[in-house]
Amino acid sequence: MPHPIQTLKELFKLDAAQIESVERMFVERNFSKGDIFDGQHSMQAYVFYLKRGAARVFYTANGREHTVQFAFDDEYLDTRSATTEVTIMFMEDSEVIYMPVSEMHDFFSERESIHRQDAILFMNVALIHRIKNLEERIFYTQHASAVERYRWVINRYPRLLECATITQVASFLGLTKETLYRIRSGRYK
């Protein structure tokens, strides 16, 4: 995924001052490996872009963590759940840009040169990215064997096993960790 500023430049003909105004709205923050950003921080008010690093988005139900997303360099994080509060755990030192949804909406509304549909497209670029990833994940969880799911996730996220636990990967794939251990050892039939 291109950097949000690059996406803006491709969609709109913004001058340098307008680009600077947008950049001032963005909050850049560094997180260390193991840092947690949870639902207590009103994440729904922002769109999160992982500039560099690795993160896992999950929720907890009945005392168990359920992995919703893994994200690596240049990906958007899915934090806009309508049903439960999610948590972001950083699996590597990471640089994150968060964009305030309401301020971005106001910025686009004030610019007559920006068509409403284009502004909506930019505001939903993270959602579009997430839908694409969810479609792929749903396909594999519904139509692929456990071994095929494992191969898919390793190909999709080459650094995953360096920073996520087997339990987290199994949760993401809808498998038990025991099944994943058998697949990895070659004993799964």
Automatic annotation (TrEMBL):
Q: Which organism is it from?
A: Muribaculum caecicola
Q: What domain of life?
A: Bacteria
Q: What is this protein called?
A: Crp/Fnr family transcriptional regulator
